[in-house]
Design brief:
The chain is α/β, with parallel strands linked by helices and 368 residues long. Helix content is 39%, strand content 16%. It is built from twelve helices and 14 strands. A hairpin with a 7-residue loop joins strand 13 and strand 14. Helix 10 runs parallel beside helix 12. The protein is globular, with a radius of gyration of 21 Å. The model has no long low-confidence stretch (mean pLDDT 97). The site of pyridoxal-5'-phosphate has 13 residues, from helix 3.
Length: 368
């Protein structure tokens, strides 16, 4: 098999399986300060604003080198004044905990409200905390990739607006796959990355922000390379210029991925495809004997956690290898209290792939 052929489909939450055409456009080299390249950056910047906030001129965007976490750290470390403000961090999984870790390492004045890895975010709990102390910022995860749980950002956004908080959402694993309306939901900063639901390759993250909120954070950053405002200001005033070396091939691939999202019929249609994948996966896996960790009403269409079979001979790595040999790569579990594994539904994955996966899983159950 040539190196350019994929021996298996990635059923992971990113990097994920991308189209041949997304990979093909990476064969050309680009000059980072040339107009040809900077135009691509500008097209991307306006396309992602459009996807998150429609044609509103009140929103803007910025791209940031690194994996998604770099963009999260860039936002958290750039939005709070140096000696005032208080951040409320909501957590119900590993990615929520990561927001807390970043806040603590940056020595931010913050409080973490944690419902545990399988707990739901409860809006009433959030309001109670907000009543008890004066907060200025609130950060949370949209789709908690740890379990696949979809958090109620719309409801929390309402609360954030009521308390006039700067609302930051880690929409890493949902943006592009689940419709989001920043304006209506009162989101100030929305973070995602190239290699998730837009179906690009890894190498940078991005932030869509309310223009006014972005303008207000000048000079707040705690890191030079992750200074969100400075990165934005340069891109904004120098027509798509990055401050430091940018992942040119990845950026070019991302524009192709955006084009393909459009060809698919936009976020609505992609959301439907992922939802169909997820429903079909759960139905098929239940039929062959697996159980999901979460209630159906809590599931996102992005990724699903299954409990490991309660059998002395079951071993994840063995099951994984059996499936891999049949063309599918799944994901280990990340919930500490449960023995489980995860299957992603995003990327170049279609209904027919899910049928084949269920068949392959059935044939890989060596312990039954
Ligand atoms: C993937 C992901 C991230 C970022 O992870 P990286 O490995 O840094 O790209 C952050 N939050 C959520 C919810 C994610 O799914």
């Amino acid at each position: 098999m040539p190196e350019s052929e994929n021996p298996y489909l990635l059923l992971t939450p990113g990097p994920l399986s991308t189209s041949r055409t997304v990979k093909d456009v990476m064969l050309r080299d680009w000059c980072t300060w040339d107009d040809d390249y900077n135009q691509i950056v500008q097209q991307i910047r306006s396309a992602i604003v459009n996807l998150a906030a429609g044609s509103s001129a009140e929103y803007t965007s910025v791209l940031m080198q690194g994996s998604g976490t770099f963009s999260v750290e860039s936002v958290i470390g750039s939005v709070m004044p140096k000696d005032s403000g208080k951040l409320l961090v909501l957590a119900n999984g590993a990615y929520g905990k990561r927001l807390a870790t970043i806040s603590s390492m940056l020595h931010l004045n913050h409080l973490v409200l944690d419902w545990g890895d399988t707990g739901e975010v409860i809006p009433e709990d959030v309001e109670r905390i907000l009543e008890s102390d004066s907060f200025t910022h609130l950060v949370m995860v949209h789709c908690e990739t740890t379990t696949g749980m979809l958090n109620p950002i719309e409801q929390i956004g309402e609360i954030a607006q009521k308390y006039a908080l700067c609302f930051i959402v880690d929409a890493m694993s949902s943006f592009g796959g689940i419709p989001i309306d920043m304006e209506q939901w009162g989101i100030d900063f929305l973070i995602s990355s190239a290699n998730k639901c837009i179906q690009g390759v890894p190498g940078f993250g991005f932030v869509v922000a309310k223009r006014e909120s972005m303008e207000n954070i000048k000079g707040f950053a705690r890191s030079h390379s992750l200074d969100l405002h400075d990165q934005w200001k340069t891109m904004e005033t120098a027509n798509g210029k990055w401050r430091f070396t940018s992942p040119t091939h990845v950026v070019r691939a991302f524009r192709q991925a955006l084009l393909e999202l459009d060809e698919e019929g936009g976020i609505e249609n992609r959301h439907q495809r992922y939802t169909q994948n997820q429903k079909q996966l759960v139905a098929g896996f239940r039929k062959i004997g697996f159980q999901t960790l979460l209630d159906d009403r809590l599931h996102s269409p992005i990724i699903t956690t299954f409990l490991s079979p309660d059998h002395p001979e079951y071993d994840f790595k063995k099951f994984y290898n059996h499936l891999k040999a049949r063309g599918f790569v799944i994901y280990p579990g990340k919930v500490t209290e449960y023995n489980c594994f995860r299957v992603g539904n995003i990327g170049e994955v279609y209904s027919t792939d899910i049928d084949k996966l269920v068949e392959a899983a059935s044939a890989s159950m060596y312990w039954v």
